[in-house]
Design brief:
Length: about 350
Amino acid sequence: MPLEIVRNDITKMCVDAIVNAANPSLLGGGGVDGAIHRAAGPRLLEACRALHGCRTGEAKITPGFDLPCRHVIHTVGPIWQDGRHGERAMLSSCYKSALALAQAHGCESVAFPLISAGAYGYPRAQAVRVAVDAISGFLLEHEMMVYLVVYTRDAFEISGRLFADIAAYIDDVYVDAHRETCSEAFRRRTQDVLNRRFAGEMEPLPRCAAPMAAQGAELDDRLSRLDEGFSQMLLRKIDEKHMTDAACYKKANIDRRLFHKIKNNPAYRPEKTTVLAFAIALELPLKETRDMLEKAGYALSHASKFDIIVEYFLERGNYNVFEINEALFAFDQSLIGV
């Protein structure tokens, strides 16, 4: 199951477990910690007292009490000093320990806040990178739906340099939204032709010389020679890349059930984001990505910021769907896969 970045209040997440960015005492505090204790009610504090604290990088579990989740997993993130005191390893351990605990308690869905990125001062862009790396690494080996929850978009950051590079790339190729789109141009040209024809300015359309039966035979012949569809191309490419099905859908950030639906139904028409997820997992070059999109009835357009951002990564040979989704989220676009 995939990783999804969402903007929400973590205390409202209907999942098996939410993760609390706690302090070592586990007795409540400010920020996410305080919000979770308030929403869970006083019994959470009583349960936390029985745990006798928690060390940095480790995790402990309690019931969710008045929260909509079954469990709260408490983990203590590192306080940022300068990045040279083991902060990354300790922060990564927070995510790995929490995920291991969730799996041990049969959780199928978990929601994380961005640990240590608030009062503990961990630079947000780096905190995002650690979170995504740790969670995506876990998901390559396990089945679980994981959410990275941010309360506001301002609380989520990617590298300033990457953001600037993508913004500049968008400025270079983006077709201004106020320009006439292809569909609008087509409608305008079609209406113009019809108006001129009705006004007698153009020759009438020629009558079709071929009998209807002949036309039907020609159409049947063309339909019998259809190209392979999206599902067929996907399965062929998986074989050509010597990948297993599981390796492909996990790398694509796609749910196993959706993959099997596509595999078992050649006529299934997936969402555009799903097609792109598989193209990225298969590390297809831009031309082959366009071919795969065409099989499902889609295309990449310079009138779409989403498409331009995806194109930015493909042109640079970056096929990490999680990094692409970080950028898409930062630019307020839909995510790939999920």
